[in-house]
């Protein structure tokens, strides 16, 4: 495993702030080729069989092999917490569920998986030596997480209660919003989080996605937070490209 080195850009994230994204893929090597070309990422060994994605030496994401073929090929966003166990209990009390109980990831931190009352899955991250993103909001890095839900009022209540300070507190700069599923996806699409990466030229990025074996799921559309397109990588994991 590579040395746990912290970037000068890494920061402490308050509870409820999106602090990490990871992809579960059938073929990590294919993922490295796809995302390395698309975003200019380099890679190094991380914990277990996963790899860090680096942009100019800063940690921006991780790729991991699926341990079970029945698991979805997916990008997952994780929210920061100082106590994953306590947050899990609050999630359960609010009508969500803990899908995977908190577990240690070496000395890097403690992870968990949860789902909101509609079933949208998200991660929790309690930092150890790895606080989260070494860089975010820049081209080639995470910039936004959009929750696509069938009940925005219920989502407002659930996440507003869990992560009030991160969403509405003093100096809060949320990287997290929500929309009706039917604004972008067919009505039968399950509620889910969509991870957004920032790009400098959306049309160029869409061309690269297709050249690399991915596909365009939803062509560019305007949102309150920028111009977005939804794509899938060459293994079927969905994510969004955002220009603003």
From TrEMBL:
Superkingdom to which the source organism belongs: Bacteria
InterPro entries in UniProt: Anthracycline_SecMetBiosynth, Glyas_Bleomycin-R_OHBP_Dase, Glyas_Fos-R_dOase_dom, VOC_core
Bilayer-crossing regions: none
UniProt xrefs under Gene3D superfamilies: 2,3-Dihydroxybiphenyl 1,2-Dioxygenase, domain 1
Domain VOC, chain residue ranges per copy: 17-127
Official protein name in the record: VOC family protein
Organism: Streptomyces cinerochromogenes
């Amino acid at each position: 495993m590579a040395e746990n080195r912290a970037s000068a850009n890494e920061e402490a994230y308050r509870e409820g702030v999106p602090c990490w994204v990871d992809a579960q893929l059938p073929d990590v090597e294919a993922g490295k080729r796809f995302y390395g070309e698309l975003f200019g990422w380099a890679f190094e060994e991380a914990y277990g069989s996963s790899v860090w994605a680096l942009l100019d030496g800063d940690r921006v994401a991780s790729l991991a092999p699926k341990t079970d073929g029945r698991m979805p090929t997916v990008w997952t966003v994780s929210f920061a917490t100082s106590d994953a166990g306590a947050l899990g209990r609050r999630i359960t009390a609010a009508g969500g569920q803990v899908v995977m109980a908190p577990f240690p990831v070496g000395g890097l931190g403690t992870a968990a998986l949860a789902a909101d009352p509609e079933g949208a899955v998200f991660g929790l991250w309690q930092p150890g030596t790895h606080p989260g993103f070494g860089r975010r909001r820049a081209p080639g890095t995470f910039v936004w997480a959009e929750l696509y839900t069938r009940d925005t009022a219920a989502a407002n209540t659930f996440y507003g209660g869990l992560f009030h300070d991160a969403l509405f507190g003093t100096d809060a700069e949320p990287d997290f919003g929500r929309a009706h599923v039917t604004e972008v996806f067919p009505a039968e699409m399950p509620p889910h989080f969509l991870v957004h990466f920032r790009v400098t030229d959306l049309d160029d990025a869409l061309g690269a996605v297709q050249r690399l074996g991915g596909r365009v799921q939803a062509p560019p559309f305007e949102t309150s937070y920028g111009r977005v397109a939804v794509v899938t990588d060459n293994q079927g994991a969905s994510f969004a490209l955002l220009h603003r």
